[in-house]
Write a structure and sequence with these properties.
The protein is built from twelve helices and no strands. The chain is mostly helical. The chain has one domain. About 5% of the residues have low confidence.
Length: about 300
């Protein structure tokens, strides 16, 4: 899944990594850091512009940046391959982000919405069992349970039920399931004329541009505020959250299995709190360290179960 346009000398640096350039565990560590940066980026972005405007410009920016290195491969790809990756992109980006954002908009507390979104490893495991009849060994289920327990220990101080209508709590859950479906679909497509990593991410970003553009235009203006804060938030979410987060997620998935890759995202809440401490001065608690250790043990057990 390396980036390729027919000229090996012109490759973006991030995605940047050939499939075997770094050990998988190091790629997973980078994934946990990059993915957690998205929550910090959104928090910073809401003070600069409506979230949908930031997401629209971030998808457009990443899509256009990757297009020169992707256009040759996209032209060569068949219609079925393109349609498949369009569907994956709509589920992984538009479906996931829309569910979480709309849930928060309708009153679901942000901490609870993030916790529901981070149930992705369980969502992938359950959908894999229901749709593909692929069960997990007991060790895998134990790891998933420990990872969830550690994550809840970390986030317990930030959780609240809020006063949202009951149906609103289903929105972030639906977003999580949308991403879980995309994960399984992406992994299965690896054996059916897959796109390279750059072309895959480029296409997924570009197909989300009209979705977020129409949605944002119906609520506000798409004209970006020309100030330094917005540019910083756009660069942060485009480079770290999209290129880094999604790029590393698909890269790890190409070298591992869906449940192990998704389980790495259990680590995003404690790492997000470290980001918030470093950037916004938010206090840390010992419970975060305890939860981090429990989560790490859970992720390790999931990895062991996958290796077996």
């Amino acid at each position: 899944m390396g980036c390729s346009s027919g000229r090996s000398s012109a490759r973006p640096v991030a995605l940047f990594l050939t499939r075997r350039a770094l050990p998988l565990v190091l790629l997973e560590a980078l994934l946990a850091i990059a993915w957690s940066s998205g929550f910090v980026g959104i928090r910073y972005s809401v003070d600069q512009a409506p979230v949908l405007v930031v997401v629209f410009w971030r998808c457009l920016l990443v899509g256009l940046l990757l297009l020169p290195w992707s256009i040759a491969e996209l032209r060569r790809a068949g219609a079925r391959t393109l349609a498949r990756h369009v569907g994956i992109g709509l589920l992984a980006m538009a479906g996931y982000l829309a569910g979480v954002a709309k849930g928060i908009e309708h009153g679901v507390p942000a901490g609870l919405a993030a916790l529901i979104a981070d149930l992705l490893p369980l969502g992938v495991a359950l959908l894999s069992l229901l749709l593909l009849q692929r069960g997990q060994p007991l060790l895998g289920w134990l790891g998933l349970a420990l990872g969830l327990g550690g994550m809840m220990i970390v986030t317990q101080g930030a959780l609240a039920l809020g006063g949202a209508p009951l149906w609103a709590y289903a929105l972030p859950f639906a977003g999580m399931l949308s991403f879980a479906l995309a994960t399984l679909w992406q992994q299965r497509s690896a054996s059916a004329a897959p796109l390279g990593l750059c072309a895959n991410l480029c296409l997924q970003c570009l197909v989300c541009v009209p979705v977020f553009g129409l949605w944002a235009a119906s609520e506000t203006t798409l004209v970006p505020p020309l100030r330094a804060g917005f540019m910083i938030s756009l660069a942060w979410t485009a480079v770290l959250s999209t290129l880094g987060g999604y790029g590393l997620y698909w890269l790890c998935l190409s070298r591992s299995n869906p449940i192990r890759t998704a389980s790495v995202l259990y680590l995003s809440p404690p790492i997000t709190m470290l980001w918030a401490w470093a950037m916004f001065g938010e206090p840390l608690a010992w419970s975060m360290a305890v939860g981090m250790v429990v989560t790490l043990v859970g992720v390790w057990l999931v990895a062991r179960a996958g290796a077996r």
